[in-house]
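Quick one from the shared queue. A colleague (R.T.) flagged Aldo/keto reductase as missing a structural entry in our internal table.

Convert sequence to structure tokens.
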Amino acid sequence: MKIGNLDVSSIGVGAWQAGAAAWRVDLAELRKAYEYVLDNGVNFIDTAEIYGMGKSEEFVGELVRSRPHVVVATKVAGFNWAKAVKSAERSRSRLGRIDLLQLHWPPPAYVPLCKAIRELEKAAKAGLTREIGVSNFDASLMEKALTCTKSYPIVSDQVVYNPLQRAAEPLIELGRRRGFVVIAWSPLAKGAAVKEQVGDDPARRLDPAVKRAKTPQGRAVVKAVREIAERRGVSPAAVVLAWHKAKGVIPIPGVKTFAQAREVVEALGLELSEDEMRRIDEVSQPFLEGDIWPGVMRAIPGFLQKLAFTIARV
Ligand SMILES: NC(=O)c1ccc[n+]([C@@H]2O[C@H](COP(=O)([O-])OP(=O)(O)OC[C@H]3O[C@@H](n4cnc5c(N)ncnc54)[C@H](OP(=O)(O)O)[C@@H]3O)[C@@H](O)[C@H]2O)c1
């Protein structure tokens, strides 16, 4: 797959879990998991300055310094839109390099969108990143953002997308027409798309997909995924990640264990049949509705967003 000029595997890996505060993780096990995926066919890892306020980037930096083949993506927090260059400098010192710099969420509504996008361009011009992208932009905001760039195209939009949250489909279609890639966060719905019970970490407590999974329609999705997995003799996670591949998006599952890492690698070689795709699409039809990002966030001034994220310690 291509993200702009970057050559990436069809599946990546997300490193929010390495920030550790909102997830309960064993960092030694996590290191083994990332090492396994990055040494067995996955060459794309995603992190952000806010994950553990730099901790995730430091963790990823240690892994990728000895793995020059890995494409490294990170994100400038939405409240730092005006300081993208400074943020990217700090991120690069933790990571060693940045290949894709994304704006983590849209700037507050009082900020002219193009002003925020130009700050990303400045970071690229300063040589801090090879490509620029955004995150949590819906199709209409993305259409506007695409008109803003002067010297660097926006090559990607990272949004939530899984069989319990399919609201990104118009955006995926727009990406096909306008030449940007959709990167899917929470591809496993934080585990809720693949198993009946998930932990109650702070990261999952308010997650809409985790709630949806408990409804009769949500349970039907999990059942369909698990039945396909059983018939094919693969893990449910591999089935869901293969569904993303067939949709033309790049999923970035957040693995926590070595066993989960093996299931990501298993998914690299799995293709679903048309019937299997149809079955998952039909059963997950009720989840085409909804928002990809709570628009209310844009009404909150940047300094308050920063305060909230600092207190929440994501
Ligand atoms: N741009 C954004 O705003 C944004 C927002 C959220 C996330 N992200 C990015 O997307 C990445 C992934 O999203 P996410 O962590 O929210 O959700 P996810 O990848 O859907 O779920 C990750 C969780 O699911 C469970 N899991 C992982 N592999 C599994 C497997 N093979 N079988 C069963 N369960 C499995 C693990 O928890 P247990 O083992 O505890 O069950 C893991 O912590 C993050 O790491 C981050 O890089 C971006």
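The chain has one domain: 2-312.
The longest helix spans residues 216-232.
Added to the table.
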